[in-house]
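DM from R.C. (forwarded with permission)

"hey, sorry to bug you on a friday — could you get me a structure for this? deadline for the figure draft is monday and I only need the backbone to look sensible"
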Amino acid sequence: MFSTPVFRRKNPAFCACFLNLPSHAAPKFSPPPFILMAKATSTLDWCVVRLGEDHNWWVDETSDPVRWDVDGLSIIDPRQLAHLIDLVDPLRDYGFDQDMMERAFILFRIERDLGDGKVRLKRTKESLFESDEKLFALPDILDEENGPYADLLDHITRCRVKMLNDLFEFESKLTVDEVEDELREDQNSHFIEGKAVHSFDELTSILDFMPAGYESDDESPAKSLDEETDDADLPELDEEEEEKLKNDESLKWDEDEDEDEDSDDEDSDDEDDEDSDDEDDEEEDADDEDEKPRRKSRGKR
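My reply, with the result:
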């Protein structure tokens, strides 16, 4: 007998592979420093300031004590701010950027007087240069090295050096490094004495900086140069020529003419006085003559 063949079905083989595929998660985003700076300053809504013994205003308390350390934190008052605006005005001809100064300060207005030399200030969005309101200006020093206030110090230093080199004829041109080194020495002396440098003094030390041996008046060098050019235009004269010019009647000053007129007036006044005296004498003589015959007539009677 024939047997029917049996066909067995083989089980298919199953293979599982586990692969470590790369992750496509979104990368972490770290905001740039200027965004962090904006967030930090946005939380500073108010501050309390006090009047120090040096007649400067210092910050005593802020709405953001985490980021703002009030130890030695100075603030510029409205009177000082107006003076700074006047000082930076001559620098406009030497590249001064007004917007850079606007960014360097956080402005506050007076909210109320707390007494005992303390005032509460409220943050405002007024313009530093265009506002008519009395404003306090707090330097933005959260980033002391690369922040907007540090940029302002560097900017006005360069403008001041450029202006001084234009106004004065130094033996060698003044450099920014020379100015910064000299200013740094003064600041270090204050730190050694344990004194905090007020931001107003820090700014004015740059805006009023003058090298040793030169005047602080910016207009004086220009005047001296004009005088030198005027003297240079005049020719040199011999003594004989000078004597001739002195004796020349056509070169008299108006003052001399006025003096001559005054002397003539005085002479005429004297003559008038003499004439009037003579007339008075004649009148007296006439009176005497009138009186004499009357006396004789009385004697005849």
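R.C.: lifesaver. The chain is about 50% helix and 10% strand.
me: no worries. Residues 228 and 234 are 10 Å apart (CA to CA).
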